[in-house]
Amino acid sequence: MTGSRLSEVDERFLVEMFEHCGMESECQVSMYDVGRKLGLDRGVASRIAEDLMGSGLIELRTLAGGVCLSERGRELAQRIAPVKDGEARFKLGSRPIIDESQQEGLETVLAEVKSQAAELALDFDSLNELIVDLKTIAVQLTSPRPKTAIVRACLQSIERILQRGTAPRVLEAVSALLAE
Prior knowledge:
Largest sheet: 3 strands, antiparallel
Number of domains: 2
Structural class: mainly alpha
Number of strands: 3
Distance between the termini: 31 Å
Radius of gyration: 19 Å
Strand content: 5-15%
Shape: elongated
Helix content: 55-70%
Mean pLDDT: 85
Number of helices: 8
Strand order of the largest sheet: 1-3-2
């Protein structure tokens, strides 16, 4: 399913949920609160939520209207959500294990770091440290349960290295991953 198959209000509902929960798979929100933020009454919010549940994009968590994004819903919302200046789409989060969607975001940012590495104008030791940190993260991502603490420590080291370099956009992406 693509975003174009959803009505505009369905997309706004999905994006509002995504903006509330981000990539956190266990986050839930009241469908009525989401509807209220969009200026919808309870009945309309309920119908939209039912349509999105039928499409497999959100899941009902509580009988009181608590819903969460399904994995497919997070992926779609992430594609259609507008990105605000200075805002990261991906955050590492505080859970002990990195989930698949966080892994994908991490890999996207790391690919950007790698592509800019030659242009960073780093001394040999800093460049070597950057390479080791990137390899450590890559090895951790091969684990069936990649540890957030290990990846966070490497990203903090990468952030410090990038502060000495000449790539502010890459530094901003790494810093945004670390933001809570």
